[in-house]
Structures
1.
Amino acid sequence: MRQEYDKYTSEDFEVWKILFNRQIENLKDKACEDYLECLSDLKEVLNADRIPKFEELDAALTATTGWSIEVVPGLIPERDFFNLLAQRRFCSSTWLRTKAQLDYLEEPDMFHDIFGHVPLLMNEEYADFMQAIGELGMRHTNSDEAILQLKRLYWFTIEFGLLRQKGDLKIYGAGIISSFGESNHIFENKSINIDSFDMISVLNQAFINSEIQTQYFEVESFQQIYNSMESLMGSLIEAEKMEKKQKSRASR
């Protein structure tokens, strides 16, 4: 699949501009410095003036961290997704929400995929972490339990991760970055729960993807996640062993 740029309508361009301008203003004091710096580095090819061309984003990403964009029709099977991450290829749809959908979508669109995810792929630590998740997904591709744990890690870091930066709470998760409502919800809703990042706690924390979040985890740096990778790998190995034992018993 490829991005068919000439098929975007005038409303598509208007929607992109509305979303971009509204969210970049909203994120000035909410997003982490790393995201804002990466977005600034991409300003020539990722801005409010027009819908981005994927080949231009690819050129910038590939030159910096070796990543590229893989066009997909929408959500794809988890194992296919991890396989692409392992190859440093990030999935993005090419369709854009309508004016009537500015504040809520059931399925991620191009604004979420590109505005939310792509800038931080210019950050080496973050880009390496994303690839590592994909590689582990492929290594444990036959274990449903291990895949579930990786989905939880991805959800509470890449999608809905928070970062404590110079003492202040900041956003780096794409699901928050790309959402006007969610990025305000974090700072305005007193009933949410924010825990310090702990790999085992994250791997055992269930989530519901159809509701606004109430549980978050904050890290001190992207390096902190890397420092927890050993416990992650150990947990995945144990999950796969337990699953094999259970299947063995069930087949007797």
2.
Amino acid sequence: MQLTCDRNLFTQAFQSAAAAVPLRTPKDVLRNVCMQVSGGSVELIGTDLDVAVRCGVEGVTTSSTGEVLLPTQKISSILRELSDETFDIEVDERTLVLKTASSQFRLSSEDAADYPPVPEFEESDYYRIPAAVFRQMIRRTSFATDAESTHYALGGILLEFEDGSVTLAATDSRRLAVASAVCEPHGQPVVPERTTVVPTRAMSLLERSTDDSVENVEVAVRDSDVLMRSGRCTISSRLVEGRFPRYRDVIPRNPSVTVPLSVGPFHSAVRQAQIVTDEDSRGVDFHFENNILKLNSRAQNVGESHIELPVDFDGPEIRITFDPRYVSDFLKVLPAESLVELQLTNAETAAVFQVEDSYTYVIMPLAQDR
């Protein structure tokens, strides 16, 4: 097998596939990226058996056919150090040679026959979502998952398709993020009966694999897995076991007050208040009164802070306490110039941050007598 590769294009595809390679695994074969060559095209594949990335490579010249395993760490290190615009790969049985005009690397390669099969995107029935919108939806929800939860469904993102729209929802039981957008069915996709919860890692890999040149993401949900195609990359993943909470039931519907807030100044005030908190006292009091938001925090052996921010609020006084980390996580995925509505009921009821009609963030308050 012999190939001539454009270094930049090969490196981009290799990094996408390598992102699915596990850092620790009892199966040594999974420490490799599998390269499949056929009909002049090349695909790189990485997997940990739960999530897989299959990425086509541009800028390769070859007439060869076959498979070879590329040791991920060694190839990553070599690609980082190369400066030539192109390089050659030659494979002879279990020996891999990578060379440029001025350097040559000879590496041992494991048997490609031992690499597990990874599905291709061959579906004719799927949903098509604008890529930039879907990337934004992932960023706006993935931070709210709980990777360490014993309730496995909380470690993934709920994926729902209904009436020409797609919804992503994520929660760790203390906060909830929900983002929606329009989508277009291709063929006759059937919404599965079981709840579709995709591992957060798979969604993050999709976001990273989708660049500005990709127009749409195509998603096919099957009985036990999901396939997501973005440009030349396909991410496949098993679905998360467990029942996702009835998230719509926890969103308060009749707030007593609504406060419009500018993201930039509000985020700055929250970050300042967060400085004077510690592990034992993470809460920040949010006090709305007479067109002023006062943020107060106090931590033993640290000190206290008091920040004021002008806001458009002339309703009855209301105090509520939040963990500032959860407020900041939400604000930092939004443009600083954007506006949000904070919907409050009372100090004990969940607060709702609303961004137009497409993004809702719910956060549970802390007890004020903590």
3.
Amino acid sequence: MLCRMGLLFDSFWRAMANCLHRRVIAWSLFPLVFMALMVWVLGYFFWAPAVLKVQQLLDGVGWLHSLWLWLQGHGVGYASELVASVLVVLGSTPLVIVISLLLVSLFMTPALTNWVAQRRFPALERKQGGGALASITWSGGSTLIALIALLVTLPLWFMPPLMLVLTPLIWGWLTYRVMAFDALAEHASKQERRSLFIRNRLALILIGVICGYLGAAPGIVWASGLVFIAAFWILVPIAIWIYALVFAFSSLWFAHYCLAALQQMRQTRMGSQEEIRVPLAPESSEGGVPGSGPGVPLAPMPSTGA
């Protein structure tokens, strides 16, 4: 247990230090670059038609049409277009964010795991215990179980203490299942992965829960962007970058812990195998007993007097 706690803290500080590396920072900026490119493409091709469509829907509402006429009478003739533009932004931003984070999860975790392996575990054998299809199946099944657990515990969310405990536990379990699998997919065999999950389950769930609480921080920034519309374009990119950085930290923490635990397990197993190996004594080439040496004849049997 003490060994696992030491490994837990060691992997935590290593992940924190890696987050300051220029390569990790560059990877965490990837969703921002992708989001900017995606927004430009969507705006170039779909902005004007989308705003016009929403504006027509708003004008079709009776009391809103009266409000627009009243505002026009007071010199605000672009109110419906402004509201339509804000609604298009609020409706499209979650889609852009989800796509960006999905790409981060697909490409950042394998890249960071491989980076940690090359820097710290270059001699660790890769047994290819999980491919892309296995990872997708495992992640999909784990996500389905987590969603069912969230639905079952939904009535308990109205009790604030339980909501603050149950939700992080469920998301922590999901985080550990998905990220630990991806961290071990290249290097561990199926049997090794199962053994590591059983031996280190509490530590892995603890890592997942801590990462789940850290993932709540960007949500505060995101909510502030929705409340303070004037700062929306500044706070939302900051929230996305924090999401990506937390995701990178989580991937690094699981990679350091899982690969170090795998290396220790293999070293322990090899040590145990060496201890049970007993060297056999060489046999005599002249038919002697073992240990009598070559060319040493057997002593004659004593006479029984028969």
4.
Amino acid sequence: MEYIKVTSENIDKEHICCAISNNNDIQVSSKKAWLSERFEDGLVFLKSAERGKCFIEYIPAENAWNPILADNYMYIDCLWVAGSFKGHGYSTDLLNACIEDSKSKGKKGLCILAAAKKKPFLAEPKFLKYKGFRVCDEADNGIQLWYLPFGEDVELPKFKECAKQPHTDEMGYVLYYTSQCPFNAKYVPVIESIAKEKSIQFKAIHLRSKEEAQNAPTPITTYALFLDGNYITNEQMNDKRFLKLLEK
């Protein structure tokens, strides 16, 4: 498999694996704009040359859009290999490239979000364990911070206190999200419209800066949905999923 590193020089012509369409699509333009603004912060987006969901996205942890304390670690935003790309060792290729790059930059190790059981849009815990990752912290909602150290006696990453007990003080549905996930550009307005149409209390909080994301009341900032103060899911809602949730 040939891999391509997306940079500010080639992002206009390269496909973005998590949103495969033309640049006029709101999902693609939103994701590419977010990536373009992160390259100066050290973000790396490495993907398959072939079109499909096969990529890794990572960034120095101090610049991650998550409430974590992980000095001199590299944080993996997303490692996603799906469809026909699964089962060929591409996840290992991408992870090894991240490890090699991170070591060359003097990092202590890697960290990534997951859970004890696989959750949508989070890393596969069985794969992480197989690759030597270990759990170093866990929030009250079961979201875990995993790490892979490059040496002995390194300081462990951890969640900031604001994210240890995910909650909000507001009633109704409250959604925290960023533009890191391209699907939000399309579907957040959709569920806002549904909530308005059905007179359901709904508030979307778009985290637009690293500082806002690093102080959010949730370890997952790409998409965290609360109801009456309680965290309920990180799974992105389209119209059908949201209507099904309302029925419950």
